Amino acid sequence: MNYDEIFPKIISHAKEYGFVFPSSEIYDGLGAVYDYGPLGTELKKNIMTAWWKAMTQMHENIVGLDSAILMHPTVWKASGHVDAFNDPLIDNKGSNKRFRADVLIEDQIAKYEAKSLKDTEKKAAKEGWEPGSVDYNGFLTNNRNAKKAQEVQARFEAALNSGDLSKLRDIIVEEEIADPDTGSKEWSDVKQFNLMFKTQVGATAEGAMDIYLRPETAQGIFVNYLNVQKTTRQKLPFGIAQIGKAFRNEIVARQFIFRMREFEQMEMQYFIKPGTQMEWFQYWKEARINFHKKLGLSPDKLQFHVHEKLAHYADAAEDIQFKFPFGFKELEGIHSRTDFDLSRHQEFSGKKITYFDPETQESFVPYVLETSVGLDRTFLAHMSNAYLEEEVTTAKGEKDTRIVMKFHPLLAPYKAAVFPIVKKDGLPEIAREIIDDLKFDFPVIYDEKDSVGKRYRRHDAIGTPFCITVDFETKDDHCVTVRDRDTMEQVRIPISEVKAFVAKRLNWRDVL
Ligand code: GAP
Question: Which of 1, 124, 231, 315 is 20 to 30 Å apart from 338, CA to CA?
Answer without folding.
Answer: 231
